[in-house]
Structure formats: structure tokens, C-alpha cells
């Protein structure tokens, strides 16, 4: 599969990508190679990865606890301390081996340690393959507020190897599918239609096209001043819902994709009411989402808490929440202002 060239780094695919990693290590003469994992990737992915790492450099393994709840500065401090105690210096390399939490947090850790060391992303979940590992965003959450602390920093390379998906639970595959749906409705409707038809899905092709789309968008707008905002479709309300369930002691956490799927249904409804997005296409998106994800009922008594969390969205300006909405499939409008009553109405529509 052909390599995709991002702004300053390549995205390699499948087994051939490990040769490129070996060349990178040899050419840069790194002092130490740190590999960041969680308990799941240590058990299931590290044994698949390590035979492919051809080097005589010193290798150190650093493990953190899995889950969005651990994507915070406290975990970063633990990783920074570990790198320091293990003799890390400016010529060290950090390899992130894991899902979105690992790649987001690991990239942030690497970019800040001694004002920046090289890092390589090896995503192991569908979500991280099609979204989190590509595009140069790194960061951590502030409490339950998603990705409030971070910076733009590019890896030396990204390695996408579908073999790691064999280690992932079906729920996590579904979580990543939400990002592919997002690319479909905003940028390339063929992706959405493939998932809608659900006939012999070629996951390799879906991943490649998703990475290709994200790279095309990021190359045009690396700092999210304009076009890149389309990658936030479904995420404005979706992140608020995800954060609400994360902080609620009496509710099971939603995966990122489950929350974003709800957000996309709601934001399609808002699009219909404000921009004339065809109602039959709202139904199409809702039907696909409901067919993939277990239904989550958003309780009316929780609406106000979700709306409060919207006030902390990263795209807000002067306290005003900004949505990405659709005129039609592949035809979007950024920085849309949505009345609170319509946001509530959209959640009620999702519940129906």
C-alpha cells in the first residue's frame, strides 16, 4: 500500500513500514528508544511489534493505565519522570504503541520533554489509525474537558498496521467507525455509503481513504483556521456528551465514537433546521448510527449539564459555541451559531 506523505512525515502501511522505522532509528542514531504502552497494548500488541523492531539501541518500556480517565497531566508527569529516571535525553525516541489516548498523550509528552524529542506513532485501534495518530494534534484532558491542554507537533512517522486490529474488541472497532462516517458525510460520501450498504467492507481501503482525507485537509489548514474545522463535525456536542458520561458516577462511560455518533445525528438535525440539509439524509445518518451503536438515551434532566460542558469547547470564541453543520453531504458550513433550544430539540430527536 502506498505511503501517504503528510506535511513533514510519512504515513506508512502494513509490514513494509517497519523497514522505514529501522532506517529512521539507524539514520538518527538515537540514544535510547522508549516505548509507551498501556496494560492492554503491552499484553496484546507489544508481542506483535517487538519482533519487527530491528535495532541494537537500548529499549525501555513505559506503561500507563488505559482509558480516557488517565489522559491527563498527572499521567504525563509520571511518564516524564520515568523517562528522566531511565536516562532519557534530547536524542531519545519515543514510540507510542496504542490507541488515541496513547498517541495523544505520548505525542504531547515527547513534544514537551527537554523542549521536544522525536516520536513515532503506531496506532493499534481503528480510531487512532483513522484519526488520532495523524494530523499533528497532541494533548490531554483537563478534568473531564477534552483535549484542553496540548499543542501541534508532528511525529517522525506514523505506522498503520491492520494486524493490531485483531487485538481490539468489537466495541472499539465501532468507535473508530464513527470517524469514518464523519469523513464520509463531510468529504467523501462514498465512505458513508460503503458503511451504509455494509457489504464486504474492505477495512484496509476505508482506513487508507480516511487517512488520505485527513491528510488532504490538514495540508491545507494545519492549524485549524478554516477547512480543518470540518474534522470537528459531530464533535462539538459529541465531546460534551462524552465528557458528561465520563464525570457521571452512575453512568457507564461512552467510547469516543459512541459519543461522536450521537453528536453527528444531533448536528445533522440542527443542519436540517438551520441550513436546509435534506431531512431524508438526516434519517439516513440516524439509521446508520442506530444500526451500529447500542442506543443511549439522553435523559432530559441531563440536558443542562451537557449544555454547560459545551461552554468549554475548544472552538468557542467569546463564549459563543461554534458548530460545523451541513448544507448537504460533502457541503459544510463552519462556525455556525445554534440556539440552545435547537440543541435540546436535537437531543430529543436522537432519543426518538
From TrEMBL:
Keyword terms: Cobalt, Lyase, Metal-binding, NAD, Nucleotide-binding, Zinc
Every 3-dehydroquinate synthase N-terminal domain range: 62-174
Listed EC numbers: 4.2.3.4
A Pfam family recorded for this sequence: DHQ_synthase
One GO location term (cellular component): cytoplasm
Record-level Gene Ontology MF annotations: 3-dehydroquinate synthase activity; metal ion binding; nucleotide binding
Cofactor requirement: NAD(+); Zn(2+); Co(2+)
InterPro entries, per the entry: Dehydroquinate_synthase, DHQ_synth_AroB, DHQ_synth_fam, DHQS/DOIS_N, DHQS_C
GO biological process: aromatic amino acid family biosynthetic process; chorismate biosynthetic process
3-dehydroquinate synthase C-terminal domain mapped to chain residues: 176-316
Function, as annotated: Catalyzes the conversion of 3-deoxy-D-arabino-heptulosonate 7-phosphate (DAHP) to dehydroquinate (DHQ).
Name used for this protein in its record: 3-dehydroquinate synthase
Amino acid at each position: 500500500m502506498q505511503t501517504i506523505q503528510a506535511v513533514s512525515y510519512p504515513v506508512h502501511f502494513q509490514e513494509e513500514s517497519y523497514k522505514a522505522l529501522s532506517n529512521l532509528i539507524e539514520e538518527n542514531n538515537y540514544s535510547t528508544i522508549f516505548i509507551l504502552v498501556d496494560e492492554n497494548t503491552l499484553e496484546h500488541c507489544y508481542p506483535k511489534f517487538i519482533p519487527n523492531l530491528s535495532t541494537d539501541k537500548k529499549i525501555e518500556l513505559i506503561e500507563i493505565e488505559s482509558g480516557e480517565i488517565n489522559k491527563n497531566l498527572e499521567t504525563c508527569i509520571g511518564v516524564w519522570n520515568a523517562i528522566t529516571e531511565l536516562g532519557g535525553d534530547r536524542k531519545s525516541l519515543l514510540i507510542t504503541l496504542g490507541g488515541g489516548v496513547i498517541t495523544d498523550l505520548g505525542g504531547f509528552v515527547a513534544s514537551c520533554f527537554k523542549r521536544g524529542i522525536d516520536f513515532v506513532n503506531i496506532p493499534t485501534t481503528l480510531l487512532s489509525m483513522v484519526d488520532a495518530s495523524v494530523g499533528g494534534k497532541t494533548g490531554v484532558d483537563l478534568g473531564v474537558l477534552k483535549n484542553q491542554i496540548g499543542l501541534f507537533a508532528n511525529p517522525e512517522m506514523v505506522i498503520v498496521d491492520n494486524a493490531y486490529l485483531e487485538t481490539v474488541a468489537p466495541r472499539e472497532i465501532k468507535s473508530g467507525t464513527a470517524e469514518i462516517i464523519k469523513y464520509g458525510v463531510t468529504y467523501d460520501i462514498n465512505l458513508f455509503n460503503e458503511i451504509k450498504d455494509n457489504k464486504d467492507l474492505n477495512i484496509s481501503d476505508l482506513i487508507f481513504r480516511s487517512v488520505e482525507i485527513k491528510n488532504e485537509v490538514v495540508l491545507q489548514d494545519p492549524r485549524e483556521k478554516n477547512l480543518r474545522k470540518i474534522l470537528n463535525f459531530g464533535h462539538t456536542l459529541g465531546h460534551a456528551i462524552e465528557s458528561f458520561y465520563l464525570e457521571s458516577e452512575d453512568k457507564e462511560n461512552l467510547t469516543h465514537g459512541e459519543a461522536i455518533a450521537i453528536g453527528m445525528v444531533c448536528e445533522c438535525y440542527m443542519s436540517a433546521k438551520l441550513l436546509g440539509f435534506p431531512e431524508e439524509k438526516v434519517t439516513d445518518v440516524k439509521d446508520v448510527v442506530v444500526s451500529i451503536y447500542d442506543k443511549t438515551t439522553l435523559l432530559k434532566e441531563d440536558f443542562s449539564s451537557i449544555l454547560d460542558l459545551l461552554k468549554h469547547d475548544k472552538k468557542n470564541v467569546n463564549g459563543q459555541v461554534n458548530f460545523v453543520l451541513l448544507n448537504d453531504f460533502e457541503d459544510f458550513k463552519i462556525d455556525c451559531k445554534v440556539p440552545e433550544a435547537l440543541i435540546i430539540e436535537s437531543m430529543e430527536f436522537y432519543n426518538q
